[in-house]
C-alpha cells in the first residue's frame, strides 16, 4: 500500500546531503513528490523537507532514516500523511482564536486531533459549538497556585501524548521549566508585530506610540516572554481615528489568521527551527 | 479672482469650533470644498483641515483667521493652492530616495520647490538627472566638524527660506539644537518598521531577529533618534531565504514610497502633530 | 438629554451646502463631532456625513432636516447612535461568513439587531452557537418554486421591518424585482476580486486563469449579477502550488473580513451610493 | 574552477525525475545548493529548478543534460551564475518603468546586460541618467509603418542576440508574428490587475467601475492582448476621492515594482511556463 510521507530535518551543512537523502528514499521505493531545502551560511545549518510516496514498510523506512540521521547528525521528523498530530489548546477569556481554530478543524482545513482545551477561565466564558465535543479542562490559577497549575498542564500533555501545544490567547506567563519542556512544539500568538510592543496590552502600547499599522505574531515559545522564533506575522493599517478598542477589534482578525497559518504550517512540518529564527517552507 | 486655500489647524477641543471656522469662511465669501476633522479625547485637542475657494483678498482672510486663532488658541496654517513649499533635501550616499523624490517632482506628482540638495558626500556619488538643475551643497562632516556643518545647514535653511527639510537617507545624527529648530517641518525616513530596530543597520538587525516582514517609517524628526511622530509606514514580507542584502534591496522600494507619501501629505497640509503622534487626513 | 446622531446625505453639488447643514445643526443646539464630505465632479453630486450631539427633540430635528432636504433635493438618512438597524441574514450552505457576522455581533463589534437568518438549506447544515437564539427560516428553493420563495423572503423583510439584508454566501440568483426593492440596502459578498471572475465558481476560474492574487468583494446588490456598487475589496497572494481547494480555504478569511467591514461601514452610515460606485467615509 | 549553475526545466511528470536529475548532477561532481519543484496534476507537467556548483566542464555538463532532456522530453535551460542575459527594453513615452529598471541594473539589483532601448518616441522625451550609456533606437511607428517597424525590432533582437525583451510601458500592440517569435522571453507590464481592465486606459476603466483597489500585472506576452501567463501582480487601495490622475500616480509605483520583480525572477530562471499559467519558484 502506497503511503505519503513527509520527512523534515536539519543538520550541519556538508556536501552530498541531498544525494544521500534522495538516495535513501529511492532505495526504499520512494518517489519524491516535493522538495524544499535551505542552507544558512550564518548558522552553517542545512534544512530540508521532502514529500514522497512509497510502499515500503514504515519500520524499514524509519530504520533507514535513523541510520542516515546518525551519519549526518540530523534533527529529523518523519510523519505519514494520514497521521494527525495530537494538539492541546490553551486559552484564557478571549476566545476568538480558539473559536477560529476549532472552526477550521471542523472544516478539515486544519488536520489535527484536538485532544483537549485548557483554560484558566470557566467554560461558560467561552463560546464555540465544537467545544462540547472536546474534553475541557478548567484549571484556574492564582499567583500562589501557578506552579501547581503548570504541573497539571504538563501532566495532561504527557498523559494525552500531546505533539503540539497552542496558546490561543492564553495570557498566563509560563515558567522556564514549562517552556523548556515544550521547545519547538508550543506556538503562541502575540497580539503585536514583534519585536514591537512585547508584554501586556500591546494594542494600548501601539495606540500610545502612534504607529500607523498594527499586527500579530505567531512564534515558538521560549523562556523569554514574547521572544522565540517567529513563524508568521501580518499587519493591518490603522489611523489616528482608531481608539484602543478599534485596535483590539481589528487585531482579532489578524491574530486569528496569523495563528491559524502558523499552526497549519507546523502541522505540515513546514517550519524548522534555526536558532532564534525559523525556516518556513510554505510552498 | 478665485483662489483655492487650505486651512489646517489644531486647538483645544471646545464646542462650536466648526461653527466658528465655517462661519468665518462663509463671511469672507468662501465656499468649502473639503473638510476633515478629528477630536482626540486623550489629548483634548481638535484638528481640522478645510479646503475652500474664495475671491476674498489674502490679507483679509489671514486677518480673519488670525483673529479666530487668538480666540481659539489655534496652531494654524493657511496656504493657497498654487503656493509651492520651499524644500531642502539632505542625503548621504544612498540616493534611491533622493532620486525618487526628484523624479516625482519633475512629473508634477510632488508639488514643491526643491531649493537645494545637501549631502555630506560629493555630488559624483549621487545619480539623478534632475540634480544638475538644482543647487547642490557638498557639506562633508567629521566628528570634529559636526557642529560647524550643522550650523551651515541651518544657515542655508534660513537663507533659502526653507519650509520643509527632508532627510532622504541622510545618515548623520542631528543635534537637539537642529531638531528643535525644525520641529514639525523635518521629515526623516527610517528603514525599519518603528518602533522595531531603531538606530544603525536596521535591516541587519531585522535579519538577525528573524522577522517575517520588514518595513520603513517616515516620521517628523525630534531630539530622540528614530522617534518622533510617525506619519506613514509600510511593510513587505521577507523569508528565511532573504540575506541582509535582499532586505536592503526590498527595503529601498518601501523607503521610497513611504517617504514620498509622507512628503506628499505634508505638502498638502494633511498631517497635523498630536503630541508624539500625528493626525493624517489623507483623503 | 444629549443624543448622538449621524446624518448622511447626497444631493446635487451647489454652493453653501456645508453652511446650510452645519447652520441647521447649530440652530438646533447641535455640536458637530465629525464631518466627512466629498464632491464628485463627474456625477455632480455632493456627499456628506455628520456626527453631532444635541438635546434637541428628535422630531424637531427631523422636521428641520426634512425641510433642508426639500430645498437641496437631498437623499438623506438620520439615525441616533443607539438605534440598531434591523438586519436579515441570508445564507446557503457555506456558513463561514454567517458564523463570523454572528460572532462579531455577539462581541458587540457589529451593532445590529439580527432579526432572522434565512437559508435555503436546513439549519442542521449550519453551525454557530448564536443561531439558537435567532429566528431561523428554512426556505428551500427549486427552479419551480423560486418566485414563491423570493416572495416569502420579501414578506419577511416587510413583516420584520428589515433595514438591511446581508447575503452571507447566499448563492441563489435574485430576480430583478427582489433587487430593485432592496436598492442600497442589500449587501452581497462575492468571492472574487471584481470585476474579475463574476458568476459561479470564481476560485476555480481564478485557478484556471493563473492569477497570483485572489480576493473578495462586498457590494450592494443590483439587478446585474455580481455587479453593483463596490463597498470594499481585499486580496491575498496565491501561488502555482495552490489548488482550487487552497484558494477556497484562503478565500474564506478574505470573504469574512471583507463582508464584515462592509456591514460595519453600512451600519455606521459610512457608505453612500454614487451611481454605480460608492463613497466610503471610513474614518 | 568551481562554477555555479542553475538548471530549470519542465517535462511530463513521471517517476524518478528527481532521482535522474540529481544523479546526473552528482555524477558530474555537482553539489546541489538549491532545489524547487512542482507537479501540476492538471497539466501533468513536472517543473524543477536546481542550483548547483561543480568543477565539471560546461560542455560536458550540457551534453549530460541534453541526453537526459531527450530521455525525459524536457524543455530545459542551463545557465552559469555569471552569465548575464542580454536584454532589450522597449518603451513609449512614460518612462517610469524604464528609469526604474535602469536604476536597479546600475545598482546591481538586476543582473542583466541591457543591450539597447527601443522607443517609438524620441530620446528627448525620456529621462534617466543611464540612458546615455546604452544604445538607443528611435523607431517611430504609424499604422502604415507598423509591420516594417516590427521587422526592424525583430532584426535588432536577432542582431543583438537578445535573450529577453521587456515591454516597459511600450504601448504599441504587437502582431502575432512578433509575439510568437518571442514566446516565453517577452515580459509586459499591464497597468491593471488582470483579468480586470484589459486594453486601453485601464486606470480610467477602474475609476469608472468604482473598484477599491488598483493593480499592475507582469506577464509573458502572447498573441492575445493583455493575456498571457501572469508572472506577478500587486495591488494598492484606492478610494472614491482618487481621480483618474491619482490612480495613474499610485499605479506608477505598482507598475515599477511588479515589472522589476518579474524581470528579476525571469533572469534567475525562477519562472517556468505552464500552459496559460506560470510556476514561480521565488524562494
From TrEMBL, chains A, B, C, D:
GO MF terms held by the record: formyltetrahydrofolate deformylase activity
Keyword Nuclease assigned: no
Active site positions, chain numbering: 226
Pfam families (alphabetical): ACT, Formyl_trans_N
Catalysed reactions, semicolon-separated: (6R)-10-formyltetrahydrofolate + H2O = (6S)-5,6,7,8-tetrahydrofolate + formate + H(+)
Family: Belongs to the PurU family.
Entry protein name: Formyltetrahydrofolate deformylase
Gene behind this protein: purU
Amino acid at each position: 500500500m502506497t503511503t505519503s510521507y513527509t520527512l523534515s530535518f536539519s543538520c550541519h551543512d556538508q556536501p552530498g546531503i541531498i544525494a544521500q537523502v534522495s538516495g535513501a528514499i529511492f532505495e526504499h521505493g520512494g518517489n519524491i513528490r516535493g522538495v524544499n531545502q535551505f542552507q544558512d551560511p550564518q548558522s552553517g545549518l542545512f534544512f530540508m523537507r521532502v514529500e514522497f510516496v512509497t510502499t515500503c514498510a514504515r519500520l524499514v523506512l524509519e530504520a533507514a532514516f535513523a541510520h542516515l540521521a546518525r551519519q549526518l547528525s540530523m534533527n529529523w521528523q518523519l510523519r505519514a500523511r494520514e497521521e494527525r498530530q495530537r494538539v492541546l489548546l490553551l486559552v484564557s477569556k478571549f476566545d476568538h482564536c480558539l473559536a477560529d481554530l476549532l472552526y477550521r478543524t471542523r472544516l478539515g482545513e486544519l488536520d489535527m486531533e484536538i485532544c483537549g482545551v485548557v483554560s484558566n477561565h470557566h467554560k461558560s466564558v467561552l463560546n464555540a459549538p465544537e467545544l462540547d465535543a472536546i474534553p475541557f479542562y478548567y484549571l484556574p490559577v492564582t499567583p500562589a497556585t501557578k506552579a501547581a497549575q503548570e504541573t497539571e498542564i504538563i501532566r495532561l500533555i504527557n498523559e494525552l501524548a500531546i505533539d503540539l501545544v497552542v496558546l490561543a490567547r492564553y495570557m498566563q506567563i509560563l515558567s522556564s521549566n514549562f517552556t523548556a519542556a515544550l521547545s519547538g512544539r508550543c506556538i503562541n500568538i502575540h497580539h503585536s508585530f514583534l519585536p514591537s510592543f512585547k508584554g501586556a496590552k500591546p494594542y494600548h502600547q501601539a495606540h500610545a506610540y502612534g504607529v500607523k499599522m498594527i499586527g500579530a505574531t505567531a512564534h515558538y515559545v521560549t523562556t523569554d516572554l514574547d521572544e522565540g522564533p517567529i513563524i508568521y506575522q501580518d499587519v493591518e493599517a490603522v489611523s489616528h481615528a482608531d481608539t484602543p478598542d478599534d485596535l483590539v477589534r481589528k487585531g482579532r482578525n489578524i491574530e486569528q489568521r496569523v495563528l491559524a497559518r502558523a499552526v497549519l504550517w507546523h502541522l505540515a512540518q513546514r517550519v524548522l527551527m534555526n536558532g532564534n529564527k525559523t525556516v518556513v517552507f510554505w510552498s
